[in-house]
Amino acid sequence: MEARAHFSREEINSTVWEVPEKFTRLKQIGTGAYGSVCSTINEKTAEKVAIKKLHRPFQSEIFAKRAYRELRLLKHMKHENVIGLLDVFTPASGFDDFQDFYLVMPYMFTDLSKVRGHLSEDKVKFLVYQMLCGLRYIHKAGIIHRDLKPGNLAVNQDCELKILDFGLARGADAEMTGYVVTRWYRAPEVILNWMHYTQTGKTIVAVTYSYLLDLWSVGCIMAEMINGKTLFKGKDYMDQLTQIMKVTGVPGPEFVQKLDSPEARNYVKALPRYPRKDFSTLFPRASANGIDLLEKMLVLDGDERLTAELALEHPYFDGLRDPDDFPEPAPYDDSHDNAALTLDEWKLSAMWYSEAAVLRMIFLQKFIQQSALSLALLMQTHRARFQQTSATDRLPPKRRVAKKRTRYKIAKYTGCNQQTVAG
Length: 423
Fold this sequence. Notes:
It catalyses: L-seryl-[protein] + ATP = O-phospho-L-seryl-[protein] + ADP + H(+); L-threonyl-[protein] + ATP = O-phospho-L-threonyl-[protein] + ADP + H(+). The protein is about 40% helix and about 15% strand. It has about 425 residues and is of the alpha+beta class. The protein has two domains: about 5-110 and about 330-390, Phosphorylase Kinase, domain 1, CATH 3.30.200; about 110-330 and about 395-410, Orthogonal Bundle (Transferase(Phosphotransferase), domain 1), CATH 1.10.510. The strands form four sheets. It has a five-stranded antiparallel beta sheet, with no helix packed on it. Strand 1 and strand 2 (about 15-20) form a beta hairpin. The longest helix has 24 residues, at about 205-225. The chain is globular, with a radius of gyration of 22 Å. The termini are far apart.
């Protein structure tokens, strides 16, 4: 099959990439269950960017819904510590051959899973601060990430961090499955699954509680950066829970009564009476403020865990806080994300929402040919896109002088790289 005009076609590690000719020197830098990522040079701007190709986005309604949701979430994010979208394109020239689309995003040098060795406290503090700034923004928009881990936290040589991968993210009002977050960074409530993460009735307790599963993951990542090794390295989900309780201690009857699952209650009751470990012994390299913050994030009972906003007020971050790091996002409307649409309707929604010229042209061709997609659906998608764009595009530029000074001061002697970075 020949590439479309002004597109080039090549196979990289058994995946066919078809991209505009301006993107050269493609190199795979990541792959996962739902997509592959290549770094590339935009020859027109001399800018290095990352391109994500989703795996079979229109294989089924479920795949198409996931692809549409990821596109919308990426377009919604307008914070310097959260990955955003630069462009969308497709090699397709018509609806019938529209099987793939590509997401163009900022290129980041590496991710935290590749940064080796013990990290200095200044570096840990700066990285955790950025994680929490990004999380605060995401949570304020009504989104729970659900998959925070070192591999989903991109960093560049100056230790600037962005939260990646919204493949598992959900709105706070969405019903959630229990299988979220790579096991080692999974909050105990996900394993115990006592609330099933369903915000029935949309009570504030349930919503806040759900956001806090991301804060457990931040605590695990912070602990790993301090000690240079994974904190809870369970062999399976049962062992993971045991590893957690060997550190936090086995909870008392009040906690056990919160568990909806009889199996979970019986499991916790049957555990040996592990005492809570002393965090100052567990993290001898950490400062008193660092230990206190860890203790308030790695709380077994999610109801008692710090929110991202409260964590940012902790004395550990004194001297780093900048009000400009805390922009207020537009609320994310996920009502359309959860609609029961056909495969063709999901494809049309993705085309319309992308704003890519070619995709919009294909959409209009298909819409004119087939009026099966209701006008109400079209207007709902357009209204959500317009409201989100008008609210978020007014945010001020994020490259601020004051913060650049702070970054320079830290990065000057603790730059991030993929080698051992002790110091």
